[in-house]
Amino acid sequence: MRIAGMPDYDTKTLARLGAQDAKIAPVFARHGYARIEPPVIEPADVFLEQSGEDIRRRLYVFNDPSGAELCLRPDLTIPACRMYLRGAHKRGPARLWYNGPAFRFQAEGEALRPNQFLQTGVECLGVTDAAKADAEVLGLTLQAVAAAGLNNFEVHIGDLGLFFGLIDKLDIPARWRERLKHQFWRPDYFRTLLSRLAKGGMNGAQQRGMFLASLNGLNARQVRASVEEMLRLSGINSTGGRSIDEIAARLMQQSADAEAGGLSQEIIDLLNRFFRVSGTPEAAVRIIRDIAKAARVSLKDEISVFERRLALLRAQNIDTSKFRYAAQFGRTLEYYTGFVFELRAPRMGEHAQIAGGGRYDRLLKRLGAAREIPAVGSAIRAEWLLAACGGNS
Amino acid sequence: MSRDKLILAIQSKGRLAEQTQEFFAQSGVPVITGAGREYTGSIKGMDDVDIVFLQSGEIPGQLESGSVHLGITGEDLMREKCFQMDKNLFVLKPLGFGRADLVVAVPRAWIDVDDMADLDEVCADFHIRHRRRLRVATKYLSLTRDFFARHGIADYRIAESLGATEGAPASGSAEVITDITSTGATLMANHLKLLDDGLILRSQACLAASLRAKWGPRALASLRRLLDMVEGKARAADMQVVRFTAGRNKAALQRVLKSLTTSGCKVTLEGASGRLQCANDDVHSVIGALHGAGCAGISAARAEYIFSEHAPVFDDFVRRLKKS
Hints:
The complex is a heterodimer of chains A (393) and B (324).
Chain A: H1 11-30, E1 34-35, E2 41-43, H2 44-51, E3 61-63, E4 69-72, H3 77-86, E5 94-103, E6 116-125, H4 130-148, E7 154-159, H5 160-168, H6 174-182, H7 187-198, H8 203-207, H9 209-215, H10 220-233, H11 244-260, H12 265-276, E8 278-279, H13 281-294, H14 300-314, E9 324-326, E10 339-344, E11 353-359, H15 363-366, E12 375-381, H16 382-388
Parallel strand pairs in A: 1-5, 7-9
Antiparallel strand pairs in A: 2-4, 3-4, 5-6, 6-12, 7-10, 8-9, 10-11, 11-12
Chain B: E1 6-11, H1 15-26, E2 31-33, E3 40-43, E4 46-54, H2 59-65, E5 70-74, H3 75-81, H4 85-88, E6 89-94, E7 100-107, H5 116-130, E8 134-138, H6 141-150, E9 156-160, H7 168-171, E10 176-181, H8 185-189, E11 192-203, E12 205-210, H9 217-238, E13 239-245, H10 250-262, E14 266-270, E15 273-279, H11 283-292, E16 296-301, H12 312-323
Parallel strand pairs in B: 1-4, 1-5, 8-9, 8-10
Antiparallel strand pairs in B: 2-3, 3-4, 5-12, 6-12, 7-10, 7-11, 13-15, 13-16, 14-15
């Protein structure tokens, strides 16, 4: 019996994919990218820890005979990064590319997508000039799809740096900032959160109003003591994985926030205006500058990175005025930290998203690097690119 | 098993298995365990029904694949184990037993956490402080994942629990749990507390039909009969049959019967002797009204079954079956 969604690569398809690979490979090589092939099988834990539980429904998880929990890689960025961290490049910048299968389970009745597909991708690791590396990776992706013969597509871009920068500069409690940043990828919940914060935070915190008020003005040691006292009175002697200091610290923050009141309408309007920004990058950046100015918030650094990136792309003879920027656009992967982009061929319908990528500066440290290593990458869906090019060799 | 029999899967052991057997016995269709065979059985008086005894966890899958026509197990298990429950299963009846709530619980020591919004903040904070995600121990991976997603929580890891989930925080294998609770006493004993908005699912045992099974005319007829018995018994438990003999004042009786009919009683009058069905709670007022209209020989009794010529649940199922 055939497993739904598992592709048969016949001789003809293999020849076409091979021919496409042969056109793209020289583009990557010319820019100093070295070809690698990370393992197809990886520990399941790594993907669940990095990408969150939502990836589980897409993950082929299984046990090897020794009992270790493994999975088929759902994409190649994490395996490539892990290979980099194991390798000789450890200390220096590396430019890597790959072309190999990835596996993501698609439930029957969902959009008709294959469970196994080829990713042709690049990862630019350890290059400290972010704007330059961003422009290099998008430029390279555009050249690669052009070499394959695709000329009718849209380029969508976003920049989480602008959003994070804006949030960081708002005069609101630090923990609210973290929550807002955290919910960027979930626009529906982001709106719920805004209205909750407008009412002065959470229901739970309101219930604790009296206790929080009693903590007001106490120092950290006194708060800790009063938490300990409360636990003792309730006969609780285990804190279940969080220390008393952790609990006390959060209560202190809440006590301070309770004094500060709710999120102001001014800030909510500011965020709503920001999220509505879309259009050409050049026009968008003007509007964002105006929004920031009106709110007396400086986004100078973030905007200059954005503009320098555009300038570096234009220097590669790329017409950036054809790009479509949207403040809401962040792709769905939470590990992105800055520039993000997608190439779409709208006439391909369900299979429109030919390529995509972005900056993920925190991932390598989370995977075990001693410090944060700047990183940006991109991946092309090889079969969809082939289809978008009309399947011709 | 012969062709076109109705195959009904019920749990082979545990409290829910006992309650299921009790339920069928009370409905007058007792389950008989197959002679010498532990895994199959039948229903007394219904030769066209075969029973298979399965582990609770297997029933949703067997319903979804269509290898059984009917199954009884907890809604929690059906929602958790079915891949596409709404597409492949049709819940005929919640059965009123096996009630249990699936809830989110955190250590009682977390006096700064009362609701899911608090938990969201703690998850994010925990990830930063401990450099790993907060772990949620559960047997209900998919229900938990969906519930957390609805509350915008992404910064956590599921630690699949095989045994006593409520012990996970104390043993250090997870910080938070989601689990079935019927009383909350187990949570207290393990120093855990419910979150205010942490109710994931209010579950009870359900009779569900597979939309994927082959439903021949005999299987459908058996389902109709089985539902008639179950519903007839349930109806009889809620109602009484009142018998009476009409007095001389026909007009007064007609007025009373008319008003009883509009308030939902089913009235039959043949010559002077009549009977009506009314709800248990109404029986005193009905008898009073009949007395008032000069009736004699009034008696009230429970029926074993009260059948109806309508079978709305069955009809809904057949309509749905035709569509899928």
